[in-house]
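So, can you check these tokens?
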Amino acid sequence: MNEARELDSHPEYVPTELEEGGASPAVKVFAAVCALALAAALLGGLMLLRKRQQDRLNAARQAEQAAHAVAPVEAQVLQDEVRLKGSDAVVSGTVWNSSTAPLAGLTVEIALKARASQAIAKQSVQVSPDTLQPGGEGRYSLEVPSSQWSGAQVVRLHSSARNADIAFKPELGEKRPLEKPSDKVIIEQRPRRKGDDYINTPDTPIRIP
């Protein structure tokens, strides 16, 4: 009888869900919510960083465009018609300081158009003298093989003293000297291709003969 009472006084032990190795539904929901919140925070942070970077790029572009838009013209660059010197073409012209301040360390950048590939190559040429007082003039000259290049155009005026480009107005310079008439008959072996000729304006390359 005593043994029966002792067994009745100790009810059968039932293990909990945690002891059985499984998590409760509340714990699972809480873990899922935390994971979603962390993912949303990471995504939001990434989007914010991208937006800030894009805003900085847009601001830089706007500042650069505004600087170019308000940059005063300080010089005129005259480009002479290209002339031949033996088998070379001479690209030359004049830089005139139209501002009220000296321009120092001047170079011009000339874009050359290849005959075969139509690719554009750029070359810097020193202006002589490289320092121009207000109203002063300087010359630039570049010799290139006429068989390789078909056009030339001044696209940039740079001042190393300022470490900046100088806004300039392009103009046509001296015309090509008239060539003496020749009794030779020249037969062109290939038909002319579109792009071999250029209108001589400041906005288009001057054709190299």
